[in-house]
Amino acid sequence: MLFPTATFAIFFLIVLPLSWLTMPNVHRWRPFMIAASFIFYSWWDWRFILLLAGCIVWNQVLAVRIHRTRVQSQRRALLWLALAGNLGIVGYFKYYDFFVNSSDNLLSLVGLDAPLSLKSIVLPVGISFYTFMAISYVVDTYRGDFVPTTLEKFAAYLSFFPHLVAGPIVRPGELIPQFDTPRDPRRVDTSRAFYLIATGLFKKVVIANFLAANIVDEVFGAPGQHSSLEILIAVYAYAVQIYADFSGYTDIAIGLALLLGFSFPQNFDSPYAARSLQDFWRRWHMTLSRWLRDYVYISLGGNRKGTLLTYRNLLLTMLIGGLWHGAGWTFIVWGAIHGTGLATERWWKSRPGYVAPPDSAGRRAVERLVTFQIVCFAWIFFRADSFATAWDMITGLFTGWGDPSPLVTAGVLLAIAVGIGSQYLPARLPRLIMERFGRLPVLGQAVVLALALMLTNAMGPEGVAPFIYFQF
Amino acid sequence: MATESHPRPRARPGAVPRRRRTGADGRRLGTAGDGLLVSVLALAIGTLLTAPGMHKSAYNGQPGFKRDVALAVTGPLAGISGALLLDRPRALVRNAIGRGDEDAIDVAVVLPATAATAKPPVKPAVKPAVKPDATPPAAPAKVAFTPKRKLRLWVAGDSLVITPGYAIVRAAGGSPVIESVGGVDGHVATGLARPDVFNWFEEIRAQTKKLRPHVVVLNFGGNDDKRYMTGLPEGVTITEFGDAAWRREYGRRVGGVMDTISRAGGHTIWIGLPITRNTAQTQRFDIVNAVVQQEAKKREGKATYLDTYTTFAGDDGGYAEYLQDASDRTVKVRAGDGVHFERVGGDMIARIVVRRLNELYDLTSWRHKPRAAASASGSSAP
To answer: Residue A449: which of B38, B90, B102 has the nearest Cβ?
Structure first.
């Protein structure tokens, strides 16, 4: 069940009033929301709910055991067991074929066959997201940062449909307490919710789909057939496409949760206005970045074990981040570019005698420009279906200047300009829009929202393209 | 139970102090009721504003109960929207972006009347296909292409053509005598059975006229393995997918597309549907392939059917997601959905297409000819 569909609209219009009607008694609300979320998830394939239910039970049982066990070695063993279960599920569904195929090709170099056979495994949607949230729950319990809750609350937390399939990755401490405290129906941030839903839909349906259909897919499909200008613009277009697609999805998710009375953490904060890679990762997929920081980087030792190990930890964290996005070497290279970039930045700023130059508009512009180019270069590997395509894209950037560029149209340039320009809008503008919207009477709000939906529908393509991050 | 219940929102005088309904940033907050009411009203108004588009989407849906209900609901809504002029804002936007005609439901199947299609399809009046044991006639001289006069190639079809299409375009880019024109015209979830979803008959006629391709590579049928067809001629009823009436009508459309291309001076290379993970789907694809193959046979010299079934079958003859490549590496050739292709799979199809192009045309002799002769040979059209 995709957000921008009539099916989901009907589903949500049923769930929204029932959620508020059952809310006064959370013992009724929680089973209701679990049931609603399971129906939402089973829309893809009913068998997926068995996996989700298994994940809930497994992590709850082990988190409670970890909490009750006093012997450190036993707690550690239980933690490893929980992690093995979570990573085992993801590993099997997402990476099995990748590892078997890679090892087969490696072994074939020395004339051996891989010991395992390939399977055609269907990837359950959202598995990477909810297993990461489950890991947060178990690790936070192990670290003593969170006391395990009841099975019912944990099930509601993990399966809550607004975040279930593509995040944001909400920490247990952020959401579970909200399930304890009944939401006040007199204090719902409706103007922010509708603003996020309307802009999220526009970003996904109009901007992302337009760029994909009009330049990105065609150029990445056959880079050798396109001019350097088309390739360059396609790379920028993909940067905007993936931002509009993913941030659009999470905006809708955050908006829906707000209408139900719950708040999710922010997931994007104008990432293409970042002044360094470190800054970029504070603004891009923020909930994944902090997950990687808290559960991978810090677990590896963070910056506490010396300079060299800090660089190693940065690189490893980003490699894992790359692999999380997809079972492919191109994703690993994408992670390696970011990891190397982060380590280089750290080295540059920590070298003896380094003095940060004074802040100025020119300096900020240069830093933003350089960061954006590095991010876009890394996106080439993220989007390319193989190294051959990535290589064709990179070489094509230098070999076809002056060739005709029919794909570089005013519409494409406008969509890119809107996508990048939106990152530089003053923060008070959305606030002003929400404030004005909030002052309108109910009918006025409905008309404005309906016009926004109409505009999105009129400018968008026929049908609904899946969200990029669903495959992760 | 009572411990986790919270006081009902209705305020008892004096019990709960009224808080100002503003958020942390000072903005005014709404209520759950407001949220619900705005959602319902916005969707209701939005439905009326977008009713023509919704009706088109409903019409384009797969036949069945859902489509019937959607049509029954959106039809009257589109009528009300039109009567109240609420469809105008959307039409204005659509016209402004040059998509004003996209809400029209077009089921016209316009095909050229040819010997192959005008005669009763059961007994085609074309010359029987060449028997395998018959002595082949002397092969006519192949039409030669040169770097100065390149073979113009256009690729079109449903989603199955996209990955192989780009592979073909890449392969064309590597050849000095093949020129890709029009890129890859791939439209997801389309086919020849449903011109209302996307009218390929019009598209192919328009594009062949505009691009003048020497070769058109097509791949259709992945979405046509169903009973339901729009644009049926008067009196034609299809009871079941694959029955005689279905085969006749689908054959008429396939043959018509091939004739449209050959009349525009092009040769059709039709990529057959591949084996899929789903056995029932593969069996349905076999029926589609048989019709296409038959129509291509009727138009020998003007159309070619390329079988991909065995290319993507494993050692056991069944579906294979991974295959060995030329250097004996195991490579993923099929996408996770069990139907579409990975890049390597697309490359495999591209190689078959290029091989066929070399069989059909002389793409290499220009290398051995003096410059003047080479350019002269390119003056003949295929």
So the answer is: B38
